[in-house]
Each structure stands twice: as C-alpha cells, then as structure tokens.
Amino acid sequence: MFATEPLRIVAVSAGLSNPSSTRLLADRLAAATREQLETGQDRPVEVRVIELRDLAVDIAGHLVSGFPPAALEDALAAVTGADGLIAVTPVFTASYSGLFKSFFDLVENTALTGKPVLIAATGGTARHSLVLEHAMRPLFAYLRAVTLPTSVYAASEDWGAAGDAYADGLPVRIRRAGGELAHAVTGGGTVSGASRAPGPDDEVVPFAQQLAALRPA
C-alpha cells in the first residue's frame, strides 16, 4: 500500500518589503525541494510559504498577552507540523531579524525536535554570510532541530551571477540545499537530481526582473 498522506514543506520568510529578496529565496528553495521530492518518490507534496511581515502585529500581541490570534496559531501549527522546514531571514545588525527571532521565540522549544531545517539568509554584502553559522545554527540547535549541512546565503551580487571557478552560483547552491532537505524528509531515500549539472533552467536572470515577477498583479 502506498502512503497517501502528503509531505508538507513549510518555508518561513521574514522579509519586510514587498517584493523582497528574502521571499524570493524562500520560494526558490521551496521549489527546489518540491522538484526533488516529486522526482524521488510517489507521495504528494504540499508547499506553504509563511510571510512573517503579515503576522508582525499578531506576533507582538502574542508576546505581550500570551494568546495567539487565529492566523498566528495556524502558522505556528504549520511550522511544527511540517515534515521539512525552510527558514529564511534578512540580515539585520549582523544577525537574524527581530521579527524572525520573535516568531521562533513563540515555538515550543521541543516542537521542532528532530525536524530537518534548511536555513538561509539574504543581505546586501557577502561579508554577513557567517550569520548562518554564528546565529541561525545555534538557534535551531537550541530548538533541537536538525539543520542541514548546506545553508544558503544570497548577497545582492549573487542574484543574476553564475558563480566562478571557486564558488558555485546561487542556483547550484539552492538545488543542492533543496536536495538535502528532500533527502532528509524522505528518511534518507534516494532523491535524484540533487547534484545534476547546471542546465537551461539555470539561465541567469537579472535581479530586478526576478523581483518584478513577485509584485502583486
């Protein structure tokens, strides 16, 4: 008998602008994970992206009152009930944003135990890329989650860049991270394509054009 319960991937984006590079990165990571899951096994896949900026007032109210409004309660339930989690924050003062931290402060400290988490961040310069290691990994270690080996940092210059002889381009890193999350979600099952060579789908698209595609119709 084949399992019919869908695999649930939840991406949390703490971007403040609309559109934002943080949401763009969350979408790309979620799409890469979905692609690997749909290739490697027969279960349906559900992807949900949670925009924390839409919940900012609810998050502040919950921190003060201790009672989450319905929308925030639903978001917290989605995160704790996910099979795999993608967490993406912009960099503020060399760390994750206050909105990102406030949301995860509301997650019970055992609710993510053993859950695979792909961490990612965006910033204006590559100098802040260590935020993934000195801030985000310790946060999810405290929450007892399992952070994946590959984390993804996207500086402004990474969008629309194809990489060089010393570093993979952003599309390659996104695909590798998505493959790792898909592999972890399926319990170590085979997920094809996680390390395939760049192809036509990896065509470099200017950053302004990528952001423009996110604007509401």
Protein topology:
Layout: E1 7-13, H1 21-40, E2 45-51, H2 56-65, H3 70-81, E3 84-92, E4 95-96, H4 98-105, E5 116-123, H5 131-142, E6 146-147, E7 152-155, H6 170-185, H7 207-212
Parallel strand pairs: 1-2, 1-3, 3-5, 5-6, 5-7
Antiparallel strand pairs: 3-4
Helix pairs in contact: 1-6
EC number: 1.5.1.-
GO molecular function, one term: oxidoreductase activity
Domain NADPH-dependent FMN reductase-like: 8-159
- In CATH terms, the superfamily is Flavodoxin domain
Any idea what the radius of gyration is? 17 Å
Oligomer: single chain
Helix content: 25-40%
What is the distance, rounded to the nearest whole angstrom, between the alpha carbons of the first and last residues? Answer: 43 Å
Query: Major beta sheet, specifics?
Result: 7 strands, mixed
What's the helix-strand series?
EHEHHEEHEHEEHH
Structurally, the number of domains stands at 1
Strand % is: 15-25%
Number of helices: 7
What's the total number of strands?
7
Shape by Cα distribution: globular
Mean of pLDDT: 86
Structural class: alpha/beta
- Outline the low-pLDDT stretches: 189-202
Protein name: FMN reductase
Keywords: Flavoprotein, FMN, Oxidoreductase
InterPro entries: CE1759_FMN_reduct, Flavoprotein-like_sf, FMN_Rdtase-like_dom, NAD(P)H-dep_FMN_reductase
EC number: 1.5.1.-
